[in-house]
Design brief:
4 strands; globular
């Protein structure tokens, strides 16, 4: 499974850190290179997250399907409620992040289900509850 994740994500799962954060407005997917001087992983992370944001906005969730070998929870509703969700890529010093934002309660619930699936699958240890600070 680890080799499949590298191919699907385009960067090493072992030399990067993933975080999936639930927020009151949706959530955040954040990936960082573990080493400050790791320009290759930073570039690969940024390419991956830019593509993910673009694909998700177009309703294409093939990337998580190929990473996980099955469709993550929440995707059906995210596709159905797609017009109500904004996906924004942002570059960070160590990599990048995608913010998933919606004012629609059903879309937010789907985003939360999707991110909870990612937290469990990637074993990030991130909270399964929305952070009230966001």
């Amino acid at each position: 499974l680890a080799a499949a994740r590298v191919l699907a994500m385009g960067f090493s799962h072992m030399t990067t850190s993933h975080h999936f954060l639930l927020t009151s407005s949706g959530g955040v997917i954040q990936v960082s290179a573990n080493e400050a001087g790791d320009e290759l992983n930073r570039r690969q992370i940024r390419d991956h997250l830019q593509k993910a944001a673009s694909d998700f906005a177009a309703g294409d969730f093939g990337m998580p399907l190929s990473v996980h070998g099955g469709m993550p929870a929440g995707v059906d509703a995210m596709q159905t409620r797609g017009a109500a969700i904004r996906y924004q890529y942002l570059q960070t010093d160590a990599g990048g992040r995608v913010e998933l934002v919606s004012e629609d309660a059903q879309a937010r619930a789907a985003i939360h289900a999707f991110l909870r699936f990612q937290i469990v699958e990637h074993r990030t240890g991130d909270s399964l509850e929305p952070d009230p600070a966001f």
